[in-house]
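Hey, sorry to bother you again with one of my protein questions. I've been staring at a protein lately and its backbone has me curious. I owe you a coffee for this, so here goes:
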Amino acid sequence: MLNNQYLPVLIELHKEYSSKDVAFVGINSNTQDSRERVAVHARQNAIPFPVVKDVGNKVADQLGARRTPEVIVVDSNGIIRYQGRIDDQFGIGYARPGKPTRRDLAEALDEILAGKLVSVPKTEVAGCCIGRVAKPKENGQITYAKQVSRILQNNCQECHRPGQIAPMSLLTFEDALAWSDTIREVITEGRMPPWYADPHYGKFSNDRRLSPEDKETLLSWLDNGTPRGDDKDLPPPRRYPKVWKIGEPDLILQMPKPFEVPAKAADGIDYQYIMVDPGFKEDRWVQAAEIRPGAPAVVHHSVVLVQAGEKLDLRATGIVLCGFGPGEMPMELPEGLAKKVPAGAKLVFQMHYTPNGKAQSDQTCVGLVFAKKPPRHRVITAPIYSLPFLWLIDKIPPGAENHKMESEQVFWHDAHLLNFMPHMHLRGKDFTFEAIYPDGKKEILLSVPRYDFNWQSIYRLAEPLALPKYTKIHCIAHFDNSANNPNNPDPKKWVYWGYQTWDEMMTGWIDYYYDDENPQDNVRQDSEQGRGMSVQDAYKMPASLNTMQGKQAAEADAQNKPSSKTETTK
């Protein structure tokens, strides 16, 4: 049973074992996939073994297969010797970096070829349920046409349609019927729609959660035979932008030439900084911006930065224009708010590429929508770093299950807060933003009790939050560097600040504006003070930071102790 995420692995396994008289056959049992679609998919992915269509799920039913991808190994006597996952690299809520801890299929094949019994003959499979043939009821009190179509339209189709991030479409009744088992599972477990904010704190305009009423309606429809109902009750199809979510941009800027991403890179790919000149002769105010990656499968994230001088100054305030990452939406500001790109400034694409086993060519672009009139306020995107971590004073010890880090920013002038985005890597566990007001009152603004590196959402406040001068934004994060974290690259290592996925970061991103600032004036520089060290100073780190990190990490690992004092909360 094929799955795109595991295709590179299966192709390598076929190369490894086909010379040992092991035959590979791909089987597609999803009722929603036609023969033609299966054939096109096989050609596009250069699958080197036969792929067949299981009409009516007959093979899947006979073998007891439930999910994709699921592997069944049958010996020469027709006896099933192994059934389950390919390996343990990918699962619900995790993707082990580098390589799996157990290659279940390979180990089963090795044991069979050696004439041994398979030591682990059955394993659990994590993946979507196979879309089986189903005969729905013709009618019922809750139908697809009357209720369910509207719920899917309002909550799911933004991502679940052709060309978007989701792996399947949910535009039609046939789609919903075929994926009904998966819909039940992800709704019941709260995995979809993806939203990780604790509902007890804050109200957000982009809250993706299903209402309790919609959840109950969906589950009742599934429990009562998925009736279609009368098509005349269907809502008009929702119209989506063909290309740009922000609408047709006023200006589109593309990387000058493609960047070739290799199939593999053992040491990762350094961040790429690619400059484009928009040719602005006067200051421009950007109200909306959207990054569109050319090869989304290998673009881990992209940030468009504003270079106002001869060189890119990472110390400058207001350098971030917009970003793209898993789960992130375009930058769209209400009327009266905008970001500034000064006359003569260049834009720089910061690109983080992660190879996925297939060489690809990327030429990312960004679309800009300009404010139609001068804004009332200039919006600033700012990072609230854990400076001890950034400066290598703090590190995450091996095996630490709940390592705590903190960061803060003081506002020396009245301001309004617009949104938050917590950022950590694979060991990130939870993240909290709180406001400490001048009178000492504390308020939790956002709590993400289960941080998910694969869904780095921006949490947009339903209404801008007033921050009186001297208010402090305090961030608290915890990291799990233990073996219990399946995303953990290596629980035996000390972990340092770094840019690669196997390193770590602790950053609370915020968007805000000053109440009394004329947007034509230079933005205030003093908002970054009050942290014990300014971000400007923090960026004056040695150019050889990565070398320093590597050297200290190696020394600490060799001695099996930290290179400076660390504290861990348990």
Observations:
- Residues 4-129 form a domain with the Glutaredoxin fold (CATH 3.40.30.10).
- The first strand starts at residue 26 and ends at 28.
- Residues 526-570 have pLDDT under 50 and may be disordered.
